Every structure is written in C-alpha cells, then in structure tokens.
Amino acid sequence: MILGIGTDVVNVNRFSRWTCFSPRQLQKIFSQQELFDCYNQAGPVQKQADYIAQKFASRFAAKEAFYKALNGMLLALDIMPKQHISFLFVCNYVQVLVDSFGRPILDINWNPLIDKIGYAIPSVRVHLSLTHEKTVALAFVIISQK
User: Fold this and answer.
1) Is the pTM of this model over 0.85?
2) Integer Cα distance of 67 and 89 in angstroms
3) CA distances, 78 to each of 51, 64, 90 (Å)
4) Please, what are the domains in the chain?
C-alpha cells in the first residue's frame, strides 16, 4: 500500500554556483558520501562543473521529494508530529547513494526522524527515481508499506 508520494523538479542552473561552495556549506544539505560521489564521478574538466551541478540538483530534488512523501505518509497515517520537521533536518538523515547495479537509492537514518515525529513508523520501503538533463533535474519518491 502506498503511504506517501513526493516529486520535485529543479533548475540545474540554480546549482551551478554551488560547485564553488565550501564543503562546510554543502554539508548542510549533502552528506560526505554524496559530495564524494558528485565530485569523483565528474568527467573531463570542461564538463565537470555542469556535471556536478546536475548531481547536486538531482540529489537536492530527491531529498525534497522524500520530504514531501514523508509528510504525505504522516497525513495518511493520521500522525501529527510532536515537533516540526524541517527540510534541513531531513537533509541531515537522508542521502542518495548508488547500489551495486548503479541505481540510486535513498539511505535513511529513521531514528532521528522517529524521535522528532514522536510515533513509531510502520515498516516501509522507499522507492526513488531520478533523472536529469542539462537544465532540469527531477526526483520521484514513493513510500510504501512492506
């Protein structure tokens, strides 16, 4: 059963300047592993900044889509969190990784989220789809019951 759906689309150009941000600034949104993946998978120097901006954009969109799906799930389960859950809080506990087949997955540390929500969350599965082109990145997240 689907408990939450979230989608987000972002303009990649918005993330072009992020390629010049310090690691400290970027770690407000991205994990160390995500930054490593974005910087170390880049191709030739002339395409590197554009490629990194696409990676940043798609990962940002994934976190935003998860945030929306999480709020949809809480609504579907009739759960009112004991504390407000901000997007930046979620960013600290959700990261986009790549599985052994090269597919993007969301790695979620549920414990801090559950503490903030104040309720147990049923066993769930999180599905992620990402795509990006030169100017647009899109993420789609579904949270379903196991």
Assistant:
1) yes
2) 10
3) 41, 21, 20
4) 2-145 (3.90.470.20)
